[in-house]
Structure formats: structure tokens, C-alpha cells
Amino acid sequence: MIREELIENGERIHHWSDAGYKIWQNETNILYDDAVDVVPCPYTYSESNELVEPDEITVEDKAEAYDILMGVSE
User: Fold this and answer.
1) β-pairing verdict for 2-7 and 30-32
2) N or C: which end of the chain has fewer CB within 10 A?
3) What would the pLDDT profile of 47-64 be if each residue is shown by its tens digit?
């Protein structure tokens, strides 16, 4: 099942599969491990039958990469 969570004070929405599958962005037919969109979100998502491959990237690594991409500095 696709799960959603509001993040960044409700300005963005995080989408992912609670079963560990990649998700399809229905409107663009792009496959993602998970997705983050602005609110209101113009996209819908469906589960694929392809499992997300585990990686060695930590949550902290992803957060740091996101901050770099968004221009956030400490």
C-alpha cells in the first residue's frame, strides 16, 4: 500500500510503499524508491512489483544530500 506523510511543516509530502516496493508516478510513468512532492501534490502513485534494493546509505546521508540540494547550510 502506498503511504503518505506530510513533512517540512506540511509543505511537502513523502510517498512510499509500506511493503518495500518501488512506486510508479502514474502521470509520468517514472519508477521511484520513494518520492517527495510539494503540497498540493499533482501526482498519484501506485506500487510496482519491483522491490526496493537495500543500500548502505544512511538516513543521515540522505538528509545531508537533501540539504545540499535545497541549499540549506548549518
Assistant:
1) unpaired
2) C
3) 999 999 876 666 676 777
